[in-house]
Amino acid sequence: MIPRTLRSKIFAGTAVILVIMSSATFYTGLASAELARSVELLFRDNLALKEIRLDLALSEQALATYLATKSSDALKDYIARSSSLSARARPLNREIRPDEALLLQRLLGGLVERFLADAEAAVAAKRGRDVESYAARFESAGHDADLAREVLARVEGLFIADSLEAFTEFNARIPSVLLTNAAMVLAATALGLALLARYAFKLTEPLSRLAEAARAVGEGRYDHELPRLDTGDEIGTTATARDAMARSGRDDGARRLALDDRPH
Amino acid sequence: MKRLARPLSFVFAAAFLVATLVNASLVGSSRQALARAVTRGSGVGSAGRWLVVAIIPEAGDSFFEGLVAGIAQGAPEADLAVLFHRYPESEPDEALRWFETALAARVDGVIMYSSGDDPVAELARRARHEGVAYVPVGRDPPAGTVAGFIGSGSLRQGREAGRIIGEGLGSLARVGVILPTGGDGAPGIEPLLRGLREGLAPWAGAGIVATARSGAGVLAGEQAASELVRANPGINALVCGSSVDTVGAAQVVVDLALVGRVLIVGTDETAEIRRYVERGVVSASIVRDSTWIGREAVRSFVALAEGKEPGRNLEAGYYILSAAAGGSP
Fold first, then answer.
1. Are residues B75 and B102 in the same domain?
2. Quick one: B145 and B179 in the same domain?
3. Are residue B142 and residue B184 in the same domain, yes or no?
4. pLDDT for residue B185
5. CB–CB of A41 and B35 under 8 A?
6. Which residues of B touch A144 (CB under 8 A)?
């Protein structure tokens, strides 16, 4: 819809400029959020391993507490910790693929399973009051946990190395991203200014002509020609009125001259 | 200004659009770079049938590098994925820990470098108990070893070194020996020494005057050679048991201006050894085919995994690298 009033024209022009500026700002914010999410991705695997390491330690601790006290609270704690460990270890890779990190994950998964199996057996033996068996299984579980921690350390090191390598590649692109961001904001600002100038001229030029024409009428120059101003807004209306005024002025003048020329 | 405003609007609009598109593309490719490197999935290589852990020392020795290369070469055609664990040669306990890890994680097989000190028979028993195929590889079968050991045969290597020295120096040969680190038993039962004695036997009067055991590290060979030569000025031949020791001995002979007066028979082939052979500092190097050992270890694993009994012990071939021969397998 084409704006018909001066106010709506000013509003539409300003709105276009604001939309351009805000879209540049919105996009820049969006891109920054994307980059931040990417960096988070870098450490996703390490964070998952950290959780496994923590659950392993807590499960081991809860198991030791239960075996030492046989309290139901300790058993509940052990069940909660070991379930969490089992759940966290589930996403680890189990496929045999020619990739060190994937194979280490498989190894880690196997060790966690073995730890859980030994720990479960220790708990069962404790319930059955089989002292010799639960002590042996507890020792075995501790050994499994130590081996798992060693594999964890190696996978973590590998992931950190991978993350660093990826970050180096990512980091190399950052200056270009910032540069294009700056170029984008500058281009948006320049575009806004150019549009502003265009609107300013478009709005004020008829006004200037009208002002000049009004001055001419004020000075009694009714023959001053005003170019057609089909702006369709208040300026156009004012121009039409001014034309009528000038015409009326001219007619009055002519009538006055005719009266003056009549013989007395 | 009025006339400029319109074209400038188009120019800046185009610039804004282009900058936005380039920026979006850069952000996208940055994210992809991260995702590619960080997120591993089932797209990596083709799925294998077996998982084998190969526990091999990391010593900068071409023998071990050849071993690793051989295993890596044999793995794809045998449909197995290999997880290498390299450990410092000075820390054999780490190797045993990784053996434990492999067993506990129930991998399909373990290919493990074993020196004379390793309880190979016990390791084999434990692996069998866990249902894991165990393939010991190394230089010589350790004491009390089981069948299926794949090695380089230091006895033959020693005989060859003795023959080369005997042919060069005859009964005047006074030999110093640098035994490789890790050791395959006491010097008296060391296969390299036994072979060397046998090789020198035809030349009456020729013999071994001193032995030294090389330690871990790149300068260990240099240190051992230096001590041997200074403590035994009569030495006119050096036999080295590894590529690191060969390079170290060659440097000592050059530094002490003994080129031409002390004959060196080295082991294996590296770019440095080739240079020393070309310059006449090293008379000859006995190059063991450790790549073959690696490939054979993979074949042996497959046989074990398919339920076959361990085969007889195997020894890799070798060739002599010398200025005259250049390298004759």
1. yes
2. no
3. no
4. 54
5. yes
6. 104
Which residues, numbered 81 to 120 in chain B, qualify as contacts with chain A under a Cβ-Cβ cut-off of 8 Å? 81-84, 97, 100-102, 104-107
Which helix H or strand E contains B300, and what residues bound it?
helix B290-305
Kindly report, residue by residue over B285-318, the tens digit of the pLDDT. Answer: 999 999 999 999 999 999 999 998 888 888 898 9
Instruction: Specify the pTM.
Output: 0.76
pLDDT digits 0-9 by tens, A159-183? 888 888 888 888 888 888 889 888 8
Residue B92 is part of which domain span?
2-152+290-316
Residues B125 and B91 both lie in one domain? yes
**Are B109 and B60 in a shared domain?**
yes
Tell me the HSE value of B15 on the side-chain side, using a 13 A CA sphere: 20
Q: CA B150, CA B139: separation in Å to the nearest integer? A: 8
Residues in CB range of B31: below 8 A, 6 or more apart: A34, A35, A37, A38, A41
**Cβ atoms within 10 Å of A130's Cβ, excluding its own:** 15
User: Do B190 and B254 sit in the same domain of this protein?
Assistant: yes
B2 in reach of chain A (CB within 8 A): yes
Stretches where chain B sits below pLDDT 50 are 184, 327-329
ipTM over 0.90: no
Query: What is the predicted pLDDT for the residue at A210?
Result: 79
Q: What CATH number did the domain enclosing B102 receive?
A: 3.40.50.2300
Q: How many domains, chain B?
A: 2
| B16 with A184: Cβ contact below 8 A | yes
Q: Is there a single domain that holds both residue B264 and residue B164?
A: yes
Q: A9-18, A65-74, B102-111: which has the minimum mean pLDDT?
A: A9-18
What gap in Å lies between CA B302 and CA B298, rounded to an integer? 6
Nearest-CA distance from A34 to chain B in Å?
7
CA-CA distance, B52 to A33, in Å (whole number)?
43
Q: Do the chains contact at B33 and A114, CB–CB below 8 Å?
A: no
- B37 in contact with chain A, both atoms CB, cutoff 8 A: yes
Distance from B103 to chain A by nearest Cα, in Å? 9
Does residue B118 fall inside a structural domain? Answer: yes
Q: Is B30 within 8 Å of A151 when comparing Cβ atoms?
A: no
How high is the pLDDT of residue B37? 64
**Band of pLDDT at residue A117, cut at 50, 70 and 90:** very high
**Domain for residue B270, yes or no?**
yes
CA angle at A191 for the pair A188 and A193, rounded to the nearest 5°: 110
Query: Are B191 and B74 members of one domain?
Result: no
Q: Is residue B163 part of a domain?
A: yes
CB distance B200 to B175 below 8 Å: yes
Residue by residue, DSSP assigns B140-194 as SPPTT--TT-EE--HHHHHHHHHHHHHHHHGGG-EEEEEEPTT-SS-GGG-HHHH
CB A102 within 8 A of CB A122: no
In a domain, B79, yes or no: yes
Q: Does B84 sit within 8 Å of A100, measured CB to CB?
A: yes
B312 reaches A (C-beta below 8 A): no
